Amino acid sequence: MRAVPYFLLILAGLTPLAPAYAQEDAPGGYLGLSVGQTKWNDACDGLISCDDSDVGWKVFGGYQFSKFLGVEGGYVDLGEVSGTDPSFGLGELDAEGWGVFVSGVGTLPIGDRFGVFGKIGAAYTDVEVSSSTLGSDSDNGLGLTFGVGGFMNILRNLSVRVEWERFQDAGGDIEADVDLISVGVAYKF
After folding, report:
1. Which end of the chain, N or C, is more open, meaning fewer C-beta atoms within 10 Å of its C-beta?
2. 115, 136 in Cβ contact below 8 A?
3. How would DSSP label each residue in 55-99?
4. What radius of gyration do the chain's Cα atoms show?
5. Separation of alpha carbons 37 and 79, rounded Å
6. Phi, psi of 102 (to 5 degrees)
7. pLDDT of the residue at 135
8. What phi-psi label fits residue 88: left (phi over 0), alpha (psi between -120 and 50 degrees) or beta?
């Protein structure tokens, strides 16, 4: 994703402003929004042509119990994958998914303005598959989700995040593993 290097340049330009606006380490809630790129792993196996990447996004909220431990949940749009299926007359095949998730979050602050985090939890996902020759089907289920990321506090209650997450077995029996690399903001209240 080309936006990430530009994002890092913007962060570097904002770094001198951060000490005056460092986020407090006190417990509290937060809300955020992230946008990025999804990749559907192994979704193109057996297809003649395939596009397994799309725009994905999520809205999230959480509560930080201490500067090291919190919980986060939200809604994620996993984007879409499309291709040409060689079986049954080269029909078009599309799949799109969404989910809700909850994760425990471990945070390691690095100074007043930076930090890294890891998370692990569960996601309920729904994937709808449609084929021009076979019709459509959908499946849902509960799967594992995990990820890592970093943040920079740019104002007293506002931080910028970069993260990678995996949603395993998206769609239950469809068993798609979907990665989301995203850039977002979080507001602490």
Report:
1. C
2. no
3. EEEEEEEEEESSSSEEEEEEEEEEEEEEEEESTTTTEEEEEEEEE
4. 19
5. 8
6. -145, 135
7. 74
8. left
Report which secondary-structure segment, H or E, holds 13: helix 3-14
Q: Looking only at Cα atoms, what is the longest distance across the chain?
A: 63
Q: Which residue has the tokens 């530009």?
A: 6
The burial of 154, by beta-carbon neighbours within 10 Å (0-12 exposed, 13-18 middle, 19 or more buried), is given as buried
The secondary element (H helix, E strand) that includes residue 7 is helix 3-14
Residue 165, C-beta contacts closer than 8 angstroms, at least 6 positions apart: 119, 145, 146, 147, 179, 180, 182
For the residues of 135-175, what is the DSSP string, one character each? EEEEEEEEEEEEEEEEEEEEETTEEEEEEEEEEEEETGGG-
Q: What is the pLDDT of residue 88?
A: 57
pLDDT by position in tens, the chain (length 189): 444 454 444 444 544 444 434 344 568 999 999 999 999 987 777 777 788 899 999 999 999 999 999 999 999 999 998 888 766 566 777 889 999 999 999 999 998 899 999 999 999 999 998 877 777 788 899 999 999 999 999 998 999 999 999 999 887 666 789 999 999 999 999
Place of tokens 């506090």: 153
